[in-house]
Design brief:
Length: 222
């Protein structure tokens, strides 16, 4: 289990670095609306399997979720039904939830932006949900082709969402740190004017393409 400081480090490292460090695994293959813009978060998952078009499970989750967790809400099939609105999001924020990942819709988008709780939702729609059934609290769910289990780590930012199995969390965090250090060194070299084709040893493979570009440029100059 990661400490709060390590979880904050995951959020700062971001999805791209964590995804590469994990061996390019755990990427949620779905587009999400991020509210508010600029949000980033990470935390252990509390998955909720809602019945189709039904958010009773979300209401139940407010009594079960723990501070710092990412509430992951899914249905058997994603559809633009609002599982969360401003009232439920207000409860989640008061409970100390780190973020919401909603494989469905949210509504009251303007209010959610002002609330400030980090939210990633597949849809935004005013269409309301029923409150009739709960399929599972803390049971695994599938989001964008990735299984999310209780305690798996979810990293969310402007690039998307990555799920990190809890068994690999510390290993991947260390690899992500090392990758970030390498990228910082490369960023400094590129800022000084070095080129990736030289740093990565790509110039030889690109010799013909670069020569063709020079030939065409020479034709323009003429």
């Amino acid at each position: 289990m990661l400490s709060q400081e390590e979880i904050q480090e995951l959020a700062a490292l971001g999805t791209a670095t964590v995804y590469e460090a994990s061996g390019r695994k755990g990427l949620v293959e779905a587009g999400f609306v991020r509210l508010p813009e600029g949000s980033r978060a990470a935390g252990p998952a509390f998955p909720v399997l809602c019945a189709q078009g039904d958010n009773l499970g979300v209401h139940a989750a407010m009594a079960a979720v723990r501070p710092g967790e990412v509430l992951v809400l899914a249905m058997p099939e994603p559809e633009p039904v609002a599982l969360v609105g401003e009232l439920l999001a207000t409860q989640a924020k008061a409970r100390g939830v780190a973020a919401l990942l909603v494989d469905g819709a949210v509504r009251d988008a303007d209010g959610l932006r002002l609330l400030g709780l980090p939210i990633w939702a597949r849809f935004v729609s005013p269409r309301g949900a029923r409150r009739e059934r709960v399929l599972g609290l803390g049971t695994p769910v599938w989001v964008g082709g990735v299984e999310v289990r209780l305690g798996d780590y979810v990293v969310l930012d402007g690039d998307g969402v990555v799920v990190l199995p809890r068994e690999r969390a510390r290993e991947v965090l260390q690899r992500a740190r090392e990758r970030a250090e390498r990228e910082a060194a490369l960023r400094a070299r590129f800022a000084r004017g070095e080129l990736s084709v030289d740093v990565y040893g790509l110039r030889q493979n690109l010799r013909e393409a670069l020569a063709e570009a020079e030939r065409l440029r020479g034709g323009e100059d003429g």
